[in-house]
Amino acid sequence: MEYAGERNRENPATGTQGQTGDGSRLIVTEPAGPEEKGLRTDVFLAARLDCTRSAVQHDIQEGRVTRQGKPAKANTKVKEGDVFQVLVPPPVDLAAKPENIPLDILYEDEDVIVVNKPRGMVVHPAAGNPDGTLVNALLYHCRDLSGINGVIRPGIVHRLDKDTSGVMICAKNDLAHQSLAEQIQKKEAKRTYLAIVRGNVKEDHGHIETQLDRDPRDRKKMAVVPSGGRWAATDYEVLERYGKFTVVRCRLLTGRTHQIRVHMTYIGHPLVGDPKYAPQKTCFSISGQALHSEQLTFRHPRTGEWMTFTAPVPADMQTILTRLRNGQFH
User: Fold this and answer.
1) Would you call 161 a catalytic residue per the annotation?
2) pLDDT by residue (tens digit) across 189-228?
3) Which of 59, 111, 161, 215 is labelled catalytic?
4) Beta strands 306-310 and 230-241: pairing type?
5) H helices within the chain, ranges in order?
6) DSSP-assigned beta bridge partners for residue 98
7) Which pLDDT belongs to residue 18?
């Protein structure tokens, strides 16, 4: 990610800079002064690096920021004398390009487009996935997309993980984007997911409420933390039980990264096939976690009409369900 205000990077207040072998730059800040004591880490670094807080938060989430050699957290208070190291990757062209990729469109009008995202498709370009994403496909199909999330994530109101399939809504203009984002924030929009998990979930219904943050041992994973994370809440209900496996429906009350995957793992029932949180082998063949965005209900941003869309269960999950129902597992 390239920071704004690049010409100010030679400001002595920023600290020293060095080049790494892959073209990244390592910035070491000058020690925090007494007047900076008590600032949030992201606020402190945004001022020092002349960039936005969101840019700093992104780098922290990616594990590129350390304090005294340990991974930094955005909301940790700065102490006098603190020194931070920020690894800035080489600048890249972040603008997503249109690509002729087929889309499974469930609904479309001048304001929104609702699609059934396949498993294995990344939502927007990022490191390691510069193309072939849902955004690339949307840019080819749609003349306009909302610009609120910038050139790399146009139209994206909410995300699905790469290996989570199912219904997603995207905005074609900023008015629609703002309305949909507000509905999600206020919990007016309803999102339900179908999941196949390990073990026998005993309760018919459950509510999981925790704080989620980056796993300090693996910055590419999320984890339940005692404090300092973001509040996350998930409701679930059991649909079918098969001894070693359970089919559940989850409803998101918040939309944190990997939320359902982490929450179900937290209560002892990780998702079948989850490569991050349940890497053990099973008798089922599926590429990624058995998680499907089943249904989305929202109020149309222009008409105010309530609309519900359902995405059919993908073939790989349907095969697992059929085998479970026929007792073809061990």
Assistant:
1) yes
2) 999 999 999 999 999 999 999 999 988 788 789 999 998 8
3) 161
4) unpaired
5) 41-49, 53-61, 134-141, 174-185, 259-266, 315-325
6) none
7) 57
